[in-house]
Amino acid sequence: xxxxxxxxxxxxxxxxxxxxxxxxxxxxxxxxxxxxxxxxxxxxxxxxxxxxxxxxxxxxxxxxxxxxxxxxxxxxxxxxxxxxxxxxxxxxxxxxxxxxxxxxxxxxxxxxxxxxxxxxxxxxxxxxxxxxxxxxxxxxxxxxxxxxxxxxxxxxxxxxxxxxxxxxxxxxxxxxxxxxxxxxxxxxxxxxxxxxxxxxxxxxxxxxxxxxxxxxxxxxxxxxxxxxxxxxxxxxxxxxxxxxxxxxxxxxxxxxxxxxxxxxxxxxxxxxxxxxxxxxxxxxxxxxxxxxxxxxxxxxxxxxxxxxxxxxxxxxxxxxxxxxxxxxxxxxxxxxxxxxxxxxxxxxxxxxxxxxxxxxxxxxxxxxxxxxxxxxxxxxxxxxxxxxxxxxxxxxxxxxxxxxxxxxxxxxxxxxxxxxxxxxxxxxxxxxxxxxxxxxxxxxxxxxxx
Length: 450
Known about the structure:
Helices cover 31% and strands 15% of the residues. It has 450 residues and is α/β, with parallel strands linked by helices. The chain is globular and about 75 Å long.
């Protein structure tokens, strides 16, 4: 989790704002909120190793999305999905060659890796990426805490294989944010002493009173400034006044039922399937309770996938070894793996879709992005990677579509996601070049936002 001091901590501490000295630059948490003052949200859903692209590959028929064989579990959800094909992870080329597994660090950052002392079969002497990941960037711009959850997403032998979330400044070597892999730890983060959100009516009333005491002087100072500034600045102040009112309405809105359930309920089903189900439910809880607006969720580690694959049909050897099998046996095993992953993705979007919000559901205000740093699993190719985006209809994302990216960089998807989250000023994300690509095209991916 990043270290930004949340609005909840700020208000609960009884902080006060200065008067005119702080104007007109007081930070407003909802200045990029979704229409209707419902926050925009992001979930990064990361899958390691890739798959057989012919089985994943989506298409379109009469302008409608046709899912690939691997994604049959999502066939009833096409109206909520956008499938993007043939993206090039341009920042993932180390020393001019396809890095393979280490490209995990470049997928969600769009940034090349620094020089360092880490190595793998596909690259040598690399460090961490030179920029923040999308979840952390959004958290810093929109001022909230980003959460990192995972399942078996840790490897002490090769630390680069796990993290998908990174903190740092653009151009500087970033620091990895490790995932919380145990449901008990995730539960404590969301509902525990440091992050609990269970509130009684008296506590809520006290928070609302402190909120009013903070915002009322700000409003009065802004109104006073209206008569003393040039006409060109009045519009800015009036817009700021509107944001103050919107912020106040949001802070006073009745929160969802965030009473902590039984901790034991999340620990009663051990194993990969039970842990994954618990972690997904906790990710949804963190979003629904306003603990965060961005969650990164990583299944397994990059080269090894999930350590225990005994529950998946067709796996007679380890995940990594199986992914390299250019045979019908290897293809069938990888199909069973991605089919299972698709069902976890479906569970996630179904849970978000079941929570009413505004005129729709939480899913309408949440972008759920499934990606992998590798396309074709047995060649470890990062030149042809897919992404699947669910939800976001209230943020401007139209579903039931297929986009052939034709070799565009994944950076352009990251820029487009920033736009959908309300940050339309972002026109570049990650590195502008790599050792193989002197210029990495930037801007939003054409056709993604219509």
